[in-house]
Amino acid sequence: MEILYRSTRGNGETVTASQAILQGLSPDGGLFVPTQIPKFTKSLRELSQLSYQELAYQVMSSFLTDLTPEELKSCIQKAYDSKFDTPAIAPLTEKGGAHYLELFHGSTIAFKDMALSILPHLMTVSAKKNHEERKIVILTATSGDTGKAAMAGFADVPGTRIIVFYPKHGVSPIQEKQMVTQKGSNTHVVGITGNFDDAQTAVKKMFHDTELAAELSKAGYLFSSANSINIGRLVPQIVYYVYAYATLLREGKIQEGEKINVVVPTGNFGNILAAYYGKQMGLPLEKLICASNDNKVLYDFFTTGTYDKNRDFILTTSPSMDILISSNLERLIYKIAGDDPEKCRGFMEALTAKGTYTITPDMKEQLADFYGDFATEGETAQTIARLFRDTGYMIDPHTAVAATVYEKYKAKTGDDRTTVIASTASPYKFTRSVLCALDQKYDSMTDFGLVDALNGLTGVAVPKAIEEIRTAPTLHDRVVDAVDMPKAVKDILGIA
Ligand SMILES: *Cc1c(COP(=O)(O)O)cnc(C)c1O
Predict the structure, then answer these.
(1) How far apart are CA 35 and CA 364, in angstroms?
(2) Which of 183, 305, 355, 434 would staple 364 via disulfide (CB 3.0–4.6 Å)?
(3) Active site residue 112
């Protein structure tokens, strides 16, 4: 069955999967959604016998139908290899009454690796398929994590260049070190003297600059984006929910067909949307529990039906969830609006104009799959400390937001069915926050002192991603003003 993609704000026109991956965002400003959700062609029992890579093929081939089996298999092989520090790729660990799905075993120890390891390969295959001869130039503004994960994915992938802009004084020392030591002759990192918003705004401007696009095209380059609205990032994320279910079944922890809950620490709504698509494919999921930090726009949305971004932006210890506009929610809005692009556009235009919109009671009724709650900073720290004290298992602050919300959910509903918590980052990425959750005395230590302290406390080996930046040489030292970003791009690409 062929799956096509259409825009959440379009006129019904469809594109193929490879075209959707290459374009990222639809020209009308909407997001690409599949015209239908494919069903599993194998039983859950059969799926439970497959390796991560085989399962990835089963899931992804049913969505990306214009890729040949050889093309897709080659992408999967290149992505899910020894870059991951375990052959399981996404192992499950049972602690404190829940199953933690560890999505941080890739090259930058955060869950974005799951999709960004394969996106570059999907893009180059898609370019070839559509006779796109130009080199793909990925432009990204980052507040710390996405830029590194994108560079690690694109490093040395033929036919691509990647340029990452980060606020010179707005990322953590470890994050900066991770970026400026990035290897790969096609990777470029530029610090800017402004903040993240300045970088983000300038990148968006470059994407819409037709003059710049023409200059680039003449030199053989095409801009593209690796951000989480690309369907090529969403589809690979469905895989690990199926894999989690398959693992529980294989290990005899559940019966075939038994429903489980998933809890997802949510920011841009990409990860949890992947679980929702998994459910529609036929995965027996009961509740999709959406966990927010103090930036609880989504909790408010699920409880009231009103999305309202007019509020203070709160900096938390789970920075990758500090988001007031959850871009991928648009795909859910489109669905519950009855696949109606006009209706969807109306809500999104209201969001841009007024910062808020309210869905109809009809639409709200269709949100029964979801349950939203949030965790405060204090609760998150307490959860880290309690789980470590009780089980010796250390989780990062994003995962701890999810674990906190899960405890609240159980207390409120009494539902104690088997539950998977998406564990989205290694605690080694947030050493200061996790150790200070145990004891404030750690706050006086240096960054690498904290790494060693965490290692001493948990006995968990220091991940390669951290170990290698201790001594790695700085390879990127370019710093520019935000206004000079287009000049930096041309300079890097050798365009006069
Ligand atoms: C990006 C990110 C999230 C949020 O995921 P979304 O798909 O944006 O909802 C959660 N935790 C970590 C560690 C992340 O990097």
Answers:
(1) 22
(2) 305
(3) yes
